[in-house]
Write a structure and sequence with these properties.
Blueprint: H1 2-15, E1 20-23, H2 30-39, E2 42-46, H3 57-71, E3 77-86, H4 92-98, E4 103-109, E5 120-121, E6 126-130, H5 157-166, E7 175-177, E8 183-184, E9 197-198, H6 211-220, E10 226-228, E11 241-248, E12 252-257, E13 260-265, E14 274-281, E15 286-293, E16 296-303, E17 310-315, E18 319-321, E19 327-335, E20 349-354, E21 357-359, E22 364-365, E23 385-391, E24 396-403, E25 410-417, E26 463-464, H7 470-484, H8 493-509, E27 512-513, H9 515-536, H10 542-558, H11 565-574, E28 580-584, E29 596-599, H12 604-611, H13 620-632, E30 637-648, E31 651-661, E32 666-669
Parallel strand pairs: 1-2, 2-3, 3-4, 4-5, 6-7, 18-25, 28-29
Antiparallel strand pairs: 8-9, 10-11, 11-14, 12-13, 12-15, 15-16, 17-19, 19-23, 20-22, 20-24, 21-23, 24-25, 26-27, 28-32, 30-31
Helix pairs in contact: 1-2, 7-8, 8-9, 8-10, 9-10, 9-11
Amino acid sequence: PKWIGVMDYTDMAENLNYNFVKTAHYPNDKLVYELADKLGIVIDEESPSINNQEFSVEVQEQQMKEMIRRDRNHPSIMFWSMGNETNHAVDSKFAVAEDTTRILTACKVTDGSAGAFVKHTNENLALEALSGFTIRGWNNLDINDLKLTDRHQSGTDGHELSMIKAGEVSEIGNLGNWLYGDHGADKDYFNSPLQHVDPSGIVDVYRIPKFTYYLWQAICGKNLMVFIQPSYWRPQYVGLKEDISVNSNCDKVELKVNGVSKGFQSPDQSNLNCVTFNNILIEKGIISAVGTKGGKTIQTEVVMAGEPAKIVVTGSQNKVKADRGSVVIITADIVDSRGIHVQGANNSIKWTLTGPATLVGPSVYESDINKHHEIDGVWYMEMPVSNVIRSTGKPGKINVSVSSSGLASGTFDIEAEELESDNSVIVEPVLQDEGRIGVSKILLKVNRLDDVPREIKMNYDELNLGSSDKHGYIKIIKDYIFKNNPSLDTATIEFRTLGDLFSSQLLNSGGHLNANDFNFNIDHYNNCRLINSYINSTKLPPLFKEGLKRYYSDAIIKKGSEKNAGEEMNWLNWIPSGGTVVIYQDEKANVNLKGAILSKNSGLADIIAVVYPKFANFSQEAKERALIFISKMNPYIHSASISDQNRAGDNIRQNNISYDAEKGQPILIPLLKFISE
């Protein structure tokens, strides 16, 4: 819908004060040029000639004529672009034949294909000068330890800022920031969680800002602003000293921790309006920054959040016309019991919809933060995150509910109002559903196995259990569940995990638990019990079985992963029986686990060699085959790419993948016959 385009361009013009847009890599909707006229944005409108598209000269001429003749009366258009990154650009003579008043450009065009009339290229007009492939949610090297040297490698928000500051940007003149939003692209960016997503935006696909958004707001923005990069203001850093970076367009910025001044800094062009306060002791409470300029003062703060407690749901509109073209952007966030946003929260969430509407995105989001070049995913790293709902064309009330394990769910209501058609001139019948075929789209696998046995029955009562501590709530909820399910085995790891989950939720909600949230968690418990019961029937080593049951209890009950029990049983059948269990512990550990060998190294190759010393002499091909095979049968083995930092054209060459074990978790090394050369 056009209002989303209006939303984007208004953000660029009003909040970032951008005054230039290259409409890559083809003529855009006419709305874009109308908005640019109104908002004062200079446009470089680009032809579709990119990456050596096989257009004939006749087609290129026709395209250029159509583009110029349609849009030449827009005062915002100062440039016509002949092409981008190609040796087959449009010849500029076709543009001059239509319009002699605009500047003609070409970006990274070779072989002289843009013709004699192009005077401005990437060499003297940096239209794509600043681009970084940053993943929102990869805030710092603690989240993803990637020390990148190539701008086409995906990296952290903090690293992107340091690369910009360390670059050759000596002044803010004629340059372009590539680009506004992450988007789908048939291209693989090295180290990216998902394939075919270009992560070079300053906002992500959901329009949630990255750190670079605030950098450019500080450099270009019209209004006074100050932004504290929040990566380190989290409970896991309490007691440590960290460097805190602040973006601002003020003359002077003062940093305070719980009201105590930590000094002053002066943002300016020399530091790209980004200053750093070194060795700040991280404390519980509030970190704030006060900026002053021209007698005016502006302040911002980051409050350290407690444990995640509930989901807050908002929407772009609460009223829409009952029309199939009406959509609403729904955004979910996770907050603590005080309503403070929880930095880094990336719980699995489930979207439930009632009323005359459909979900455009999938019903379950699981974080992609630790993925590596996978196909399936929703580009969700951490909260907040959005989904979209579309009206079915019928009036009525629409309710969206978002749930997550151990959290109070959030809801948002929308009223779809009856659309009154204007048939005064042309009588147009209302479209009917009969005979209509849905648009095909990629569906993520979130379906459960049918008929999961209910060891714990659903509950339809609101629970108000009063005040207690964690241990008290565990006993109360255990007794409540056992009373209604007297045949239940309460000594299992699944029930202990459920009790811990409920006790944390009750602590954060003052002892209140509604029926829907209770049943949401019970549903995961029942699904996990089905899978773990099957684990008991396998011939896998006992210690490895216990590890698998812990893994599923954590993934399904605690984190809310929507595992399909049938698929998991097939995977369990695939794992070879027998073998040796190895547990990685560091040198200081004094552990004696019956039935396991200890390893002081986390690398999977080292762990295999502990069991089979001859593995060290395997060929490289045989080693790689064994590493892939064993990593697939061990959920506590994690893979990460290791780059040689080289590029060949648009493709970055991958050197190898590291495989490492989690500390203290059982790793099954199969019998030698399964991995021998």
